[in-house]
Amino acid sequence: MLRKNQTSISQDIEDIFIACTDNLTGFFAAIEAVYPKTEIQNCIIHQLRNSSKYVSYKNLKALMADLKAVYAAVDEPAALDALDTFAEHWDKKYPKISQSWRDNWANLSTYFKFPQALRRLIYTTNTIEGFNRYLRKVTNEIRVSDR
């Protein structure tokens, strides 16, 4: 239970099993400094947004379907094969996309270590962001009613 004016609940945590981040500069280093055994998973949704940022609208649907073959693969070797196929098809138009996935692969592929039923919970920060948005809303409603 949170006490009045308490702002954090992560005191006395000894280790974190896995952390999903949106790959902002410094997140990985900060987590590794405090919890060196933590597995890091970059948010796939954020990676997809970054990948599609400069894609022509007429190519977007097909390109995203090809990327889905990467992140929805049954295992990591299949995902890497799908990434190779993606690169063969799209690198002439958009070479930075497959390169970005390869550059970040160590932290984009962590969720393949887990059963498929858990992967969707692991590979995106959207659930956490939605929960935090809900907490802010409730907290603001409580503050307003306390006045």
Can you tell me about this structure?
By secondary structure, the chain is mostly helical. Helix content is 60%, strand content 5%. The protein has eight helices and two strands. The chain has helices at 27-34, 44-52, 57-71, 76-90, 95-103, 105-108, 116-122, 126-146, and strands at 18-21, 39-42. It has a two-stranded parallel sheet with strand order 1-2. Helix 2 (44-52) packs antiparallel against helix 5 and helix 4 (76-90) runs antiparallel to helix 5 (95-103). The two termini are 22 Å apart. The model has no long low-confidence stretch (mean pLDDT 86).
Order of helices and strands: EHEHHHHHHH
The whole-number mean of residue pLDDT values reads 86
Percent in strands: 5-15%
Silhouette: globular
Please report the total strand number as a whole number. 2
The largest sheet is: 2 strands, parallel
How many angstroms separate the termini? 22 Å
Structural class of the secondary elements?
mainly alpha
Catalogue the unreliable spans: none
What layout of secondary structure does this protein have?
Blueprint: E1 18-21, H1 27-34, E2 39-42, H2 44-52, H3 57-71, H4 76-90, H5 95-103, H6 105-108, H7 116-122, H8 126-146
Parallel strand pairs: 1-2
Helix pairs in contact: 2-5, 3-4, 4-5
